[in-house]
Design a protein that fits this description.
- With about 80 residues, the protein is α+β, with helices and mostly antiparallel strands.
- It has 2 helices and 4 strands.
- Strands 1-2-4-3 form a 4-stranded mixed sheet, with helices on one face.
- Helix 1 packs parallel to helix 2.
- It is globular, with a radius of gyration of 12 Å.
- The model has no long low-confidence stretch (mean pLDDT about 95).
Length: about 80
């Protein structure tokens, strides 16, 4: 199976500049509305959301999740696949 980041995202969600808990709240709402098979790419610069709350949410929901920190830009790309 290919990495999620090597696939074309179905949707891109930009939550740059939002502080915790808004990145998680917006991601949850987006995933609730998304049909099965959706690959969501989330751009997030809130460390707690990127490294903790969003990955934990994905794990609880059974969503496949990959986290990539873009060091030179100071944000994370979070790839979430809804089965």
């Amino acid at each position: 199976m290919a990495d999620l980041k090597s696939q074309t995202p179905t949707q891109i969600l930009d939550v740059l500049g939002r502080v915790c808990p808004y990145p998680l709240v917006i991601t949850k709402k987006t995933m609730e509305k998304a049909p099965g098979g959706t690959l969501l790419k989330v751009l997030c610069d809130a460390p707690a959301s990127a490294e903790d709350t969003i990955p934990k949410y994905c794990e609880k929901q059974g969503f496949e999740c990959e986290l990539i920190k873009i060091e030179d830009k100071g944000y994370w790309e979070i790839w979430i696949k809804k089965a």
